Amino acid sequence: MSNLDLQATPSVCGGRGFVAAEPVRELLSPRRVQLGASTEVRRLLPNLGRRMVGAWAFVDHYGPDDIADEPGMQVPPHPHMGLQTVSWLHDGEVLHRDSTGGLATIRPRELGLMTSGRAISHSEESPRQHARLLHGAQLWVALPDAHRHTEPHFQHHTDLPTVTAPGLAATVILGELDGAASPGTSYTPIVGADLTLARGAQASLPLDPDFEYAVLSMSGEAHVDGVPVLPGSMLYLGCGRTRLPLRAESDASLMLLGGEPFEEELVMFWNWIGRSHEEIAQARTDWMEGTRFGEVKGYDGPPLPAPALPTGPLKPRGRVR
Known about the structure:
Elements: E1 11-14, E2 23-28, E3 31-35, E4 39-45, E5 56-66, E6 74-80, E7 83-91, E8 94-98, E9 103-106, E10 111-115, E11 120-125, E12 133-142, E13 153-157, E14 162-165, E15 168-177, E16 180-181, E17 190-197, E18 202-206, E19 212-219, E20 222-224, E21 227-229, E22 234-238, E23 243-248, E24 252-259, E25 265-269, E26 272-274, H1 277-288
Antiparallel strand pairs: 1-25, 2-22, 3-4, 4-5, 5-12, 6-11, 7-10, 7-12, 8-9, 8-11, 10-13, 14-15, 15-16, 15-17, 17-24, 18-23, 19-22, 19-24, 20-21, 20-23, 25-26
Pfam family, one: Pirin_C
Family: Belongs to the pirin family.
InterPro entries: Pirin (IPR012093), Pirin_C_dom (IPR008778), Pirin_N_dom (IPR003829), RmlC-like_jellyroll (IPR014710), RmlC_Cupin_sf (IPR011051)
């Protein structure tokens, strides 16, 4: 999934400024964004109160939507650079195509991981014959400078490791949790996990005190460190934690996101993450002129045009609130 907003505004991200060095409980509310005719997303990152969590720089939660009589997700070809996209579903299917020739149908609890590196383009759509419900999350991971010009590639992992406890099953999407490591390639210390809690469950997950964390609620009613987190909202937890207590009032699903606070200062505009105005401007020129980002073959429709750059220069900054 992409940022389809053609009135895009730049986001300043990164740097250790304003990273909570101790445990906090900061509830983030989403901004609602329409993607196409039938998909509305709840955007949690970037947020007015929090730009990043570790290297996680973009979080959209969508659904569950009844798309039985709708086209569902329809995101035309668009570019990315300087990041990884993580596609994660609870219901439905998404057909992924990209300019490296990557082609896959991503299904619930399977990892679709696209590393844009220096440049890639892709499309995402619900198959013509699709399930009734569509429910999932789309996330971006900022690539550190040493790896942001790597060759683009796509990974599809259908078998992911799990961590279990009474009433809890945790699927490790990216990075490592409690000794279980995802097969997905990561370029920065990070963790992403899907947590399924049974009604009445009380559990505690081990955390790395050097990581900052947040928890996104996908469904159900759960308390995270004593705070009720409802679907479509996210609780920022700061750093300095060794355990995370969880309690489920109903069957519930959460996503745990964490990582070392990202050191580098970034500019994020539309679907690109860079380090300077000039870099973003060149990416826009390359996309509009049809160079560098390649071609997505097999998608029935034109690519997305890039939004105009703002009148003032884009400047990389730290984590400002």
